[in-house]
Amino acid sequence: MLKRRNIRLLNGLMNNRMIRFLKQIFLRKEFEYYDNGFVKVFRSFFRNVPEGKWKYYKPDGTIERILEYSNGSVVVEYFYTHDGLLYQKKWYSSPTRVEVFKSEIREYFSSRPTIEHINEYVGNNPTNKVVVLLAIEFEPKCIKYVDESLKKDKEVVLAAVSKNGMALKYADESLKKDKDFVLAAVTQNVNALKYADEFLKKDKEVVLAAVTNNGFHLEDVDESLKKDKDFVFAAVTQNGTALEYADESLKKDKDFVLAAVTQNVTALEYADESLKKDKEVVLAAVTQHGSALEYADESLKKDKEVVLAAVTQSGILALKYADESLKKDKEVVLASDAIVIGF
Question: Where do the DSSP E strands lie in the chain?
Fold first, then answer.
């Protein structure tokens, strides 16, 4: 069991933790493999100097030993049994109480406790920054259970959102207004945008980072950006159905609608009615997938050229949306049947 005096000791020993955290982010990682595909050795470097845990595995994938480096020197060596259980730990320098404490915590979290156990552990140590930072490595959303003071702590929140952007939900409101933190969160998980402050939902750089990963997040942005041509174009070229959330003026813009249906034919559903009557736009959609004929204006469902293009691409999946008069047209029916029977 961890000793309470060790926990108290840690409260005054937090200097330079951000440096150490950033060092972990920028580690260069190398893998060596056995012929059977299993990892043989994992190594990590910071500026070409050994740093972190180097892991050595047996051919069956079980861990054999670990060398833990700090600034190029081995600090600890871990030895494991044939079935991968830790049985010995050798220190190559006299460990501080903090190092011993951190090692004990990391071993506990590395034993793969359930998320519930990690959250409970953090809940029992809500103000202990070392415990929280180590727990975040395994379960970023555990910041839900930390003290409010740590939800304002930039190092803690950055560690969490860099692992899982959705952890932004539990950050202090002041950090939800911090552009750097929100950018880190939405870059990791675009869904984190919904937890950003309303002011940053109007920030073009932040929202662009989200919609270029998933244009559908145009739904979550400020109304002013839904009228921005460059911004909306980035969204619909990533996900055509984002057209649903564009400003009405852009749903009437032929170039925008063409870009959207080219990316995803179902975007035709969200185009302005005037463009559902535009033969060029509808042909661009149905030649990719004939079922897009469903969203065309009734006048084009009677247009033989459009319907032929649709059924030639998708057969009866498109034919059901044609006007009744063309469902009896011999040329159209033959083109549709050809797709069905594989001519």
Answer: 28-33, 39-46, 49-50, 52-57, 63-70, 73-80, 86-91
Q: What is the pLDDT of residue 187?
A: 85
Return phi, psi of residue 280, to 5°.
Answer: -65, -45
| Residue 220 pLDDT | 67
How far, in Å, CA of 207 to CA of 221, rounded?
Answer: 7
| Cα dihedral 163→165→166→172 (10° resolution) | 100
Locate tokens 């202990």: which residue? 128
Question: What would the pLDDT profile of 42-56 be if each residue is shown by its tens digit?
Answer: 999 988 889 889 999
A 10 A CB-CB count for 301 gives 19
Closest Cα partner for 216 from 243, 198, 195? 243
The single-letter code of the amino acid at 59 is: P
Residue 343 to residues 130, 286, 291, 315, Cα–Cα distance (Å): 68, 20, 20, 11
CB 167 within 8 A of CB 145: no
d(CA 191, CA 51): 33
The answer to whether 64 and 56 are in contact (CB under 8 A) is yes
Residues 41-44: contacts with CB within 8 Å, 24+ apart?
none
Cα(341)–Cα(343) distance, integer angstroms: 6
pTM: 0.50
Assess contact for 53 and 77: CB atoms under 8 A: no
Tokens of 163: 């692992």
Using CA atoms, how far apart are residues 288 and 313, in angstroms rounded to an integer? 7
Residue 40 banded pLDDT, cuts 50, 70, 90: very high
Handedness of CA 218, 221, 224, 225 (dihedral sign): negative
323 by Cβ neighbours in 10 Å (0-12 / 13-18 / 19+) ranks as: middle
Q: Cα-flanking dihedrals φ and ψ of residue 248, to 5°?
A: -55, -35
